[in-house]
């Protein structure tokens, strides 16, 4: 017998043939006044959301496998997060932490520094967006080392502000016609086991042909690439990178804006590789969608920057910090790290079955719930199946499930599911994915 959730999923698929009248009307209003560049993946407009589902203004329900681009590890509108936001908003909304400080900032810093890997004392500073966290990590590293060069990687995504955009790899849509870019940023290969396997020795040789290690302030790496297509680096690479940074006095920065806050089954992906970064950038799921990011790191590195050298009007907003504390409570009380492992193993199993059945699926990879499939036209040449991936994303959307793509060639389907998603919801969404994959595979 089919469960009510699966029946609900089937009903949803039958009702979603067309965009509802209220969404259509809002679309027309949007087109008239909102910048073209603000172009959402989904054509419908949200009325409300809970857990892993979104209801649109016409009463249709969608399963959300994107979690608002990875911001909703504790799910949409978790009641504890909502309550924390309401309670904090009633007390005070803003002081600017450089005018009057408040407890939620301190509590969040205390809790997060406990999670940071390694035994050295850690400190935290909060910002608004992931890009800001990345830019501040670079400022801290430059101040600490009194050096200028920054190493980033092929496939990297670090945000859209000038320095973060420079550090990001993909030209269109992120960089084309937005130059000139910030100086002293050097791009090294990312050891991608599927497309570009390389030893650390080969990597180091290539790096040294780009820039002298003695001039490098920071190496900024995503321990698992996010927008780059959930690429997991070759085994042992991150440990060698740690040693390389130690040897040359370079600050190692882990950009965990996408991989952090429990997605990989550990609080930080760095822990999966036993890597102890000097600085960790966090954002996205930190405050369940409220604008909050941060840099966590070794106290003696962060503390070299003097008073007011880093900051901003809204940074570490009290409502966002209170939400962040509630997010940590939910992760701990609901064992979401374990849940990420469990969901990850279900995803991996289903993806491996898909790989066996459909030639289109060239690679299955990931850690914990951070899983993805890479689609190729030909398994030998690995030619990216970018159009097919776009068709699949559109096809699943029409059946009420929102999936996100990724990768330099837009040929990766990545899972950014809320970690509170039930097994049934997960399987329901994956059934839809597989159905559309089968059709597109022909
Ligand atoms: C790894 C990583 N760093 C930085 C960013 C930038 O974050 P934001 O969009 O909040 O500026 C992102 C966003 O996707 C990201 O995935």
Automatic annotation (TrEMBL):
Pfam families: Aminotran_3
Keywords associated with the record: Aminotransferase, Pyridoxal phosphate, Transferase
Single Gene Ontology MF annotation: 4-aminobutyrate:2-oxoglutarate transaminase activity
UniProt-listed SUPFAM superfamilies: PLP-dependent transferases
Coiled-coil stretches noted in the UniProt entry, renumbered to this chain: none
Cofactors, names only: pyridoxal 5'-phosphate
Region: Disordered, residue numbers: 1-23
Biological processes, Gene Ontology terms: gamma-aminobutyric acid metabolic process
Presence of keyword Phosphoprotein: no
Biased composition annotated in UniProt, kind: Basic and acidic residues: 9-21
Family annotation (InterPro entries): 4NH2But_aminotransferase_bac, Aminotrans_3, Aminotrans_3_PPA_site, Class-III_PLP-dep_AT, PyrdxlP-dep_Trfase, PyrdxlP-dep_Trfase_major, PyrdxlP-dep_Trfase_small
Protein name: 4-aminobutyrate transaminase
């Amino acid at each position: 017998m089919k469960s009510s959730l699966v029946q609900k999923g089937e009903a949803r698929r039958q009702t979603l043939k067309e965009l509802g009248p209220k969404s259509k009307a809002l679309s027309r209003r949007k087109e008239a006044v909102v910048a073209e560049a603000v172009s959402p993946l989904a054509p419908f407009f949200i009325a409300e959301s809970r857990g892993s589902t979104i209801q649109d203004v016409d009463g249709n329900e969608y399963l959300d496998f994107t979690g608002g681009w990875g911001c909703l590890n504790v799910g949409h509108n978790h009641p504890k997060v909502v309550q924390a936001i309401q309670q904090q908003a009633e007390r005070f909304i803003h002081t600017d932490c450089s005018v009057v400080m408040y407890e939620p900032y301190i509590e969040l810093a205390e809790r997060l520094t406990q999670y940071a890997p390694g035994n050295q004392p850690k400190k935290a500073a909060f910002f608004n967006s992931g890009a800001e966290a990345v830019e501040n990590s670079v400022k801290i590293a430059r101040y600490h080392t009194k050096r200028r060069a920054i190493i980033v990687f092929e496939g990297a995504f670090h945000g859209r502000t000038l320095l973060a955009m420079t550090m990001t790899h993909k030209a269109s849509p992120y960089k084309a016609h937005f130059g000139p870019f910030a100086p002293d940023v050097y791009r090294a290969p990312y050891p991608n086991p599927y497309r570009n396997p390389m030893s650390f020795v080969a990597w180091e040789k290539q790096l040294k042909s780009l820039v002298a290690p003695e001039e490098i302030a920071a190496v900024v790496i995503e321990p698992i690439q996010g927008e780059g297509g959930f690429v997991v680096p070759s085994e042992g690479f991150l440990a060698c990178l740690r040693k390389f940074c130690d040897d040359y006095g370079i600050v190692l920065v882990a950009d965990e804006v996408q991989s952090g806050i429990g997605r990989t089954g550990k609080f930080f992906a760095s822990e999966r590789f036993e890597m102890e970064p000097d600085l960790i950038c966090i954002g996205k799921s930190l405050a369940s969608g409220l604008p909050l990011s941060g840099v966590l790191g070794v106290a003696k590195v962060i503390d070299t920057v003097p008073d007011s050298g880093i900051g901003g009007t809204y940074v570490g907003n009290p409502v966002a910090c209170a939400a962040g504390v509630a997010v940590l409570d939910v992760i701990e009380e609901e064992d979401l790290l374990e849940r990420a492992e469990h969901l990850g193993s279900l995803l991996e199993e289903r993806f491996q079955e898909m790989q066996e059945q459909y030639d289109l699926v060239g690679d299955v990879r990931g850690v914990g719930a951070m899983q993805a499939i890479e689609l190729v036209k030909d398994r030998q040449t690995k030619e990216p199946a970018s159009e097919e991936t776009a068709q699949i994303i559109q096809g699943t959307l029409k059946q009420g499930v929102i999936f996100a793509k990724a990768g330099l060639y837009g040929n990766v389907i990545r899972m950014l599911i809320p970690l509170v998603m039930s097994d049934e919801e997960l399987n329901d969404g994956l059934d839809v994915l597989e159905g559309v994959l089968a059709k597109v595979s022909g």
